[in-house]
Structures are given as C-alpha cells and as structure tokens.
Model the fold of this input.
Amino acid sequence: MDFLKPDAFFDMASFVHRDIFAGCKYVWDALGKISGYLEQRLEPNIGTLKCLRRPLPKTVAIWRGQILEGGFEIIGGNVAKGQFRVSIGSEETTEAAVLWEGSVLWDEAIFIGPGVVVEPGALVKGPSIIGAHTEVRQGAYLRGQCIVGAGCIVGHTTEMKTSILLDGAKAGHFAYIGDSLVGQEANLGAGTKLANLKIRDETIRVMAHGTRILTNMRKFGAVLGDHVETGCNSVTNPGTVLGRGCQVLPLTSVRAGYYEPNSVIRG
Done:
C-alpha cells in the first residue's frame, strides 16, 4: 500500500527530521518512533536558564549558544517568515530566539531553534524540539514528545502532544493536536481538533480502499498531508488520514479513514 507510506503525504527533502519516517510501512508508524528519536537526537540548549517550571521573570534571548538576559533590543517582524529581528550590540539578526517574560519552560529537555519566539503565557514541556523561526503564541501548551519544524505556528491556546509538525505547518488558534502528523504548509482553521482517543476502549483502525488496517495504537489522532486545510471548528475522528491538498469545510466532523489527495470533505 504505497499510498499510505510517508512519501505519499509529505515532501521531506528539506525536513531535518525526515529520518523519523525511514522504514515506516504506514505513515502513522512514525508516531511510535517519536520518543526514541528525541532520546537520540535532542540536543537541549536551555540548560543554563535559571528559571524552570515558573514564568520567566524577564525576557531573554538565545544567541550563538548563549542565553542573554540583557544587551539586546527586540525590533520585531513576522516570525514564521523569518523576519523577526533582534539587535545585539552592533549586529542586527533574525537568528536570535526570544523567550518573552511570562513564558514557561518546564524542564531542560528542550531545544529552541534560531529565530523562535515563545510568547508570554506559553508553556513548553520536554522532550521537545522547536524548529527555526517558529512562533509559539500566548497560551500555547506543548505537552512533550513534540517535534516542530521550521516556520511553524503553535497558536493561542493550542495544545500539542506526541505529534510532529512539518515545516510551515500552522495551527493558529484554539487547536488540539494529539498523536498526529501535520504536513508542510498545512493550516488548521480556528478551533480545529484532531481527536486522538475513541470513546470505546479499542485499538484504532484505518479503513483504506476497502481494507481495515489495525494500527496497534490506542491513541492516534490524524495524518494531514502537505497543504491540507481544515475549516474553523472542524473535528477529525481518531484514525483520520488526509492525503495531500485535502480541504475540510468548517464545522465538519470527519469520519475516520483514508481520504484521497485533494478531497473536499463536507459535514
């Protein structure tokens, strides 16, 4: 079933974490590899931060491997487009990460990439990797086992756990991303929920072209291929697998199963 392999959903040529998909028979097999991948690949860079498990008392920057508590000026700009600028001494750069006063990093098992911005009220737990020029907005909650690519948005009151966002994926407002894979430049409309747990206590199965495939997972949210769009307040049921370019209309409850690329899914 080549149409269920990772390459059918994602263009991973530039994705730095593409190795996590190596050897996956089905695209969702990558979810079971997140923990081991992070254990091997995570290189934390916040170890010298003096304030963990409580709001940062002041805004800090991460620049060239150092955490700066002063000596910089925030100019601003669009984070996900790589335009957020910080002035450090006589140098202006888009490669300095900024952790705003009031943001919370729960433990040391976290990597913050260049140009990342973590806004006040966001909470990040490890192990997690946040890729370059990603914006973690106010009230966001990364619960750990998270791999976030470059140029992503984890938005206001968006919760994410045991999931992967490929480069450019955006969940700007009120989203839930549980045990899910979200492709490049996919966009979750406000209030999108990728539900990951069935009401009945049973292993999740995926229906694809008339074949019911056992995933061997109790928790499995959704796979959203590259450029998938979900409308506001849409919900995917556990075990939803959307091919590249699918569109989910607003207020739609998407039944579990596989959907061909470029499908338009209505309620």
About this structure: The first helix runs from residue 34 to 41. Residues 87 and 249 are 43 Å apart (CA to CA). The chain has a mean pLDDT of 97.
